[in-house]
Amino acid sequence: MDTAQDYFSLFDLTPGFDVDLERLSNRYRALQREVHPDRFAHAGEAEQLQAVQRTAHLNDALATLKSPLKRAVYLLHLQGVELGPESSRAMDPSFLMEQMELREGLEAVRAAVDPEDALASLERRVKADWDQLVREFKERLEQGALDGAADSVRKMQFLDKMHQEIERLEDQLMDD
Amino acid sequence: MAYSEEVLDHYENPRNVGKMDEGDSHVGTGMVGAPACGDVMRLQIKVSDEGVIEDAKFKTYGCGSAIASSSLVTEWVKGMTLDEASALKNTQISEELALPPVKIHCSVLAEDAIKAAIEDYRKKQG
Question: How many domains does chain A have?
Answer without folding.
Answer: 2
